[in-house]
Write a structure and sequence with these properties.
29% helix; 374 residues; disordered C terminus; alpha/beta; 8 strands; eight-stranded parallel beta sheet; 12% strand
Length: 374
């Protein structure tokens, strides 16, 4: 039986710093901009509505005050988790249209609740141009949750965000796979030290998007299922400049499409969220149209007639010391799909050598007291 997609708007911008003193981030407009390109009709999806966020108002927040908008983000995350739980209970596949990356907290809370209910762990595939791993242990101060979401959902940071309902962490470090960060991400060594598995852009491109998706499956073999986070700044600014923090060295739309298709082509993928697209930088809708084309093609395996309904694996044994347990087989490989008719054109020069080993990367940059990056 086919899996029905349910589209839920989560137009929050609470996790970003203001672009200017008198303006607010535009990513809250993203769900509407994507819907304008017939996203729901093309996905044959159910409209799951819109979860309206609290007002964006940093007030008198100053560096050192903790995460800006923390009470509002916490309350919004609980409400989002409730909505996602209801969608999953219907046997549907949720597609969350953010909003900034702080929507991950609500998704993570929903996944932790689900894991507790089924007696297993839920994993996370984090597809993002940045590690979003800033936290009090590696930065002089925190402030913008969209730049700290991976740290928060793995239990690092203030309890009102990192331990909602007393749940900490929402995802264990060994149950997280990070794809698409830049080769010299400032927190890459922190991810390595935490035991979080990563595949930066050079390695992703060298291995290919399809093989990378399968590799991510294998890394989460001990999980009952997994959630997929996609920040569109994983794309290169040459093709997707409409984000708050564009960073050269990203992937192409065709690669993202193949990656999404590979990740969702299994009943163990529980849903996807899309974040950080900012229509303020897309006045004619060109980039919105490209995103919609990519999402529709990437999610095609979910609604295909041959798609299997969601299925959580039974709880796995606790990992042995020194690594993951080998007692349960890896997730079944996704159904093979034909390669795209058009070859992927790399953004900039394609890598000629495999990505460097983790211990060959440069040390992260020192965080100073400058503006809070989203």
């Amino acid at each position: 039986m086919m899996r029905r997609i349910a589209v839920l708007d989560a137009p929050t911008n609470l996790g970003l710093r203001p672009p200017t003193i008198t303006s607010v981030p535009g990513c809250g407009k993203a769900p509407g901009a994507l819907r304008d390109h017939d996203l729901l009709a093309r996905l044959r999806a159910r409209d799951a509505g819109c979860l309206t966020p609290p007002r964006y108002d940093p007030g008198d927040w100053r560096p050192g005050d903790g995460v800006c908008h923390a009470p509002e983000i916490s309350a919004y995350s609980v409400a989002l988790a409730d909505r996602l739980g209801a969608i999953i209970d219907r046997g549907e596949f949720p597609l969350v249209l953010g909003g900034d990356c702080s929507v991950l907290l609500g998704s993570a809370l929903a996944m932790h609740r689900l894991g507790e209910a089924v007696g297993g762990r839920i994993g996370l595939v984090f597809v993002d141009g940045h590690s979003d791993f800033r936290h009090p242990g590696n930065a002089s101060y925190v402030g913008a949750a969209a730049g700290e979401d991976l740290a928060l959902v793995t239990g690092r940071g203030q309890a009102d965000l990192a331990a909602i309902e007393g749940r900490r962490p929402y995802f264990r470090d060994i149950d997280v796979v990070v794809l698409g960060i830049r080769a010299q991400d400032e927190y890459r060594l922190d991810l390595q030290a935490a035991g979080i598995t990563t595949r930066p852009v050079p390695a992703l491109r060298a291995e290919g998007a399809a093989r990378t998706a399968q590799w991510a499956h294998e890394q989460l073999a001990d999980c009952a299922g997994y959630w997929v986070h996609v920040d569109v700044d994983v794309l290169d600014p040459a093709v997707m400049p409409a984000v708050d923090a564009p960073d050269p060295g990203g992937i192409a739309f065709a690669e993202l499409e193949i990656l999404i298709a590979g990740l969702v082509d299994t009943p163990h993928c529980l849903g996807v969220e899309l974040t950080v697209f900012d229509p303020d930088y897309d006045p004619d809708g060109t980039y919105a149209a490209e995103i919609v084309n990519t999402v529709v093609s990437g999610l095609a395996p979910v609604s295909a007639p041959s798609a299997l309904p969601p299925r959580l694996l039974p709880a796995a044994p606790a990992p042995r010391r020194g690594g993951r347990t080998a007692e349960r087989p890896a997730l079944p490989p996704p159904t093979a799909s034909p390669a795209p008719a058009v070859a992927v054109e790399p953004i900039g020069p394609a890598p000629t050598d495999p990505a460097p080993a983790e211990d060959e990367t440069a040390a992260p940059e020192t965080i100073t007291g400058g503006p809070i990056a989203g």
